[in-house]
Amino acid sequence: MSLEQLTSQLSKSFSANKYAECLKLLTSIKIQLIEKNLLVPSLSTASNPNDLAISRSILEIGALASINSEDLSGFSSYITLLTPFYDLASLPESPNKNKLLSLYLLLLLTQGDLALFHIELERFANYGLSVDELEKDEYFAIPIKFEKWIIDGNFNKVYELLSSKHSFPSKEFNLFEKELLDSIRLTIATNIESSYTTLPLENLKLLLFLKNQADVKHFIDEMGWPVQNGVVHFEKPSTAPEDEINDDKQIIKNSLTYAKEMESIV
């Protein structure tokens, strides 16, 4: 099957939300793109902006099909392939660029990689917008807002937005709800371990935004925390700066206060 035929079938499959079929077709398509020297922009292909734009569109479908298939590793790989295309000033800007790059930033947040998040955000700003201007973009505003809340320890704001079934500009942003909440819970759990020796189960449930005792038990089992008479026990840290512990306790206090307010509303 020719590249044109494969691309046509890919477009139809993507429009029909047949993401697994898209990923299967993309295997053959990428081989042909390599053979035509179109998978990665080069000096020899820079004079053919139309071919490069088509290649970019194909890779964008690959990124979206991957993320909708919950293949986060595949999604990251497609973003890596797309980056050189987005760097090309000779190509007209893609309407999918901000959405895909924002989703990638959100993925970095779920992985807890704040350092790479900032590196990528600064690099994306080189596409013509400052970080302040990116905050006004409907897509970039989402990961930037989440990152600020996480840095400030305002996990409750992230939880509130995700649990309120907020209407995001693209359905793909909803796919990160579980991963982002899990990442936040792990951060809170780490703060708890470094700040407390014991904590009642009910307090732990509220702090971690868990819905029921079954979820609490599962989380405790995953963390390997011992429980006695309804109280969770943590190993006391041997050496930790006092100011760091106080910061952790303040974060936990803020989260617990909000969690109690949410509990009273429910």
Notable characteristics:
3 strands; mainly alpha; Serine Threonine Protein Phosphatase 5, Tetratricopeptide repeat
Name of the CATH class of the domain at 1-94? Mainly Alpha
Strand content: under 5%
Would you tell me the overall average pLDDT? Answer: 85
Largest sheet strand order: 1-3-2
Termini separation comes to 57 Å
Set out the fold topology.
Elements: H1 3-15, H2 19-35, H3 49-68, H4 72-87, H5 97-110, H6 114-125, H7 131-134, H8 141-152, H9 155-163, H10 177-195, E1 198-200, H11 201-207, H12 213-223, E2 227-228, E3 231-233, H13 242-265
Antiparallel strand pairs: 1-3, 2-3
Helix pairs in contact: 1-2, 2-3, 3-4, 4-5, 5-6, 5-8, 5-10, 10-13
Pfam families: CSN8_PSD8_EIF3K
Domain PCI: 70-250
Family: Belongs to the proteasome subunit S14 family.
Brief account:
This is PCI domain-containing protein. This protein is mainly alpha-helical. It has helices spanning 3-15, 19-35, 49-68, 72-87, 97-110, 114-125, 131-134, 141-152, 155-163, 177-195, 201-207, 213-223, 242-265, and strands at residues 198-200, 227-228, 231-233.
Task: Characterise this structure.
There is one protein chain. The chain is mainly alpha-helical and 266 residues long. The chain is 67% helix and 3% strand. It has a 3-stranded antiparallel β-sheet. Strand 2 and strand 3 form a beta hairpin.
